[in-house]
Structure formats: structure tokens, C-alpha cells
Amino acid sequence: MNRVYAPLPTFDPLAGDVILSPEKAEAGYWVGCAGVLYDQGRFWLTYRQRRPRGAEAERGWRCAVAVSDDGVDFSDVWSVHKDELRSSSMERFCLLPEGDGYRLYLSYVDPIDNRWRIDALSASEPSKFDIAAVRPVLTAALTGTEGVKDPYVVQVGPVTYMFVSYAAALDGIGAAAHSTGDIYNVGATTHPTGLATSTDGERFDWHGQVLGVGQGWNRYQARLNSVVPMSAGGYVGFYDGSASHDENYEERCGIAVSADLFTWHRLSDEGPWVTSGQATGSVRYVDAHIIDGQWWIYYEMTRVDLAHELRLIRVPAA
């Protein structure tokens, strides 16, 4: 059952428009973990394609940047294959304006230590990103964690706020937990949201946890995916929650609020804000915006065939 949190709308995920479909109608084939930038009347989309473990070019094998005039029909302008980063997998990217151009944050598995990391690229246009110029932003070593991924960036005045999902450091975690290249899928630790801030978008100060995991359905992961400022003040955030690593790929969406972006309070501890009502019920990587009096909510959803697709729903804003 979907839950009401004023001033947020309820919505039926099955009623959304399909924006992107997976390569195959089979479990393990996904397209999603979208990041959406609405900039000067155009929509920019970052998304990731995945194949099952064991398939050719398995896991997160391709990430792309696409553009649209209407927010529905997107055309790719740039993409990267995981082999260009010598990585076993990539996940969420994040695009934002930078002066007269754009900056792209990438998350992928570091080929050196199998830990997730975040790097950056800059270019005058998204079509001109050069993967050879990638530079480090946040790593496990720099944050004192077991890995960082899935950046979401908010800019307020001169400050860049980067929210990331991280693998919490615990005594006894060794290299074996990273043998698969995905500590999120082995149950060795929990995965809250951390915050890093910067005044130049390059050199970040790590502040650690700002949104922790809960005690129930969200006790394993609480990954903040998007943040929307409210006209009455403060912010509402949409986060992915899961109870264990068995749900690592099938998270559901919860709601959190903050007055200052540093301290977040979960409102969904009793249950997810929204589920699909089919298959695993997963609705994840929600990227929400208020545009021209409407909520534009992009989300990755699990289908009955257990493939994942990217959808969009638009509902009136209160």
C-alpha cells in the first residue's frame, strides 16, 4: 500500500510512462538508476544498463547521458563502457552545470581494490566528456569507508552537497568482502547515506553519515536518491531501503525530511512510501522534481518478468 505524506502525492507506479526498456525481458536485465537534470528548458538524463552476472559484459556494463526537450523521449549524446574504466561494474552517474559547461560524477568499482568509488569529468557539452580525463573525487580511503557510490548532488549558493551511498567500515571486514566487486551484495555491513561538501565541486570534505538505516524494512540500506526543496522551507528526500543483502537489487522507496541537508529524519520506518504491487514490488532510484506545478517522478521499477525498466509519472503538486 502506498502511503501519504503531505505535501507529497501518492501514485501508482504501474501508471507511469515507460521511458527506457531493458535489453531483454529476463531477470537481471535492467535499465535505470536515473539522474535527471532540468536545465534551461531541457532535460538531461544519466542512466545505467545492466546484464546478469555470468552474461557477456555482465553487471553494470554501460552508462549514458541523454537529452530531451519534453522529458519523455530521450536521445543519447554520450556513453561509456565499463572496460574503458577497467571496472567490473558502474552504477549511478550525476550531471550538473559547471560554469559555461557541465560536470559529470561517475560511480564505479575501482579495478585496484574492488571498492566502489566516485570520479568526475568536465566538458563544455555532455557530448564532449573524455573518459581519459577522469579524476578522483571520493574513494574508500578518502572517506574511511568500505566504498562509496551513487552520488546525488545539490547546489545551494557556493556549496555543493554530495550525498552518497556508502559501505560502513566495521571491524573484521577484509578483502574477502570485496572479492565479488560488490560489497553491497554480501551482507558484510550496512549502507547508510553520507554527505560530502565542496566549494569548487572537486575537493570535498567528508561529513560521514547523515541518513542512517532503520530497524525494520530499511535496516540494511538507506540510500538517498533525490532531494527537493519545499516552498515552505526545508527539504524532502527520497531514499531506497532494504532489509538485507537479499533485497540489494530490489529496494523500495521511503521518505525523509531535513531542515539543513545535514540532519535527516526518516518518515517511512513503518513501511515503504511506494511499491508497485507486482513481482518484488521494487520502486527504486526515485529522482523527483517539481516543474511547472507538477511533480515529475522518474523511477526504476521491477517488472513481472523481473527485468527493470525506467518510468516517469507526473502528478499535480500541492
UniProtKB/TrEMBL annotation:
- Classification via InterPro entries: Glyco_hydro_beta-prop_sf
Domain of life, source organism: Bacteria
Name recorded for this polypeptide: Glycosyl hydrolase family 32 N-terminal domain-containing protein
The organism's lineage is: Bacteria, Bacillati, Actinomycetota, Actinomycetes, Micromonosporales
